[in-house]
Amino acid sequence: MKKMMIFFLIAGLFLAPMTGFAASPWTQEDNYNDRMSGKLRFGVINTLFGWTDIFFEPIKGARKCESCDSVWTGIGKGFTDAVVNEVGGALQLLTFPLVFDIPLPDDGVQFATCCGCGSSK
Hints:
This protein is mostly helical. It has a domain at about 35-115. Helices cover about 55% and strands about 0% of the residues. The protein has four helices and no strands. Helix 2 packs across helix 4 (about 70-95) and helix 3 (about 55-60) packs antiparallel against helix 4 (about 70-95). The radius of gyration is 15 Å and the shape is globular. The N and C termini lie far apart (about 45 Å).
């Protein structure tokens, strides 16, 4: 089980830049202490609230935002993002003293109901 987890972690680190995941917001901090606390906060938020993408992504799909073009696409994206955010948040939380990045889709949990696309729906 440990070997499998290490394999997925390493594969995720190498494949993440190829899949369009952006760097986590805490990586922009200036010093080690700020990055470490930012990574801890990011991990806690994504671990506790990663499941909320199940609801936010279909809303984005209904508004035809950039990441989803329909409610059904939003439901599928919401379920996959929820799992990735939960697992990725837990990994961020467990590895917060080591300030390497584990990027999450759409910068992790976002509490806005739209992606800023200017939709008025």
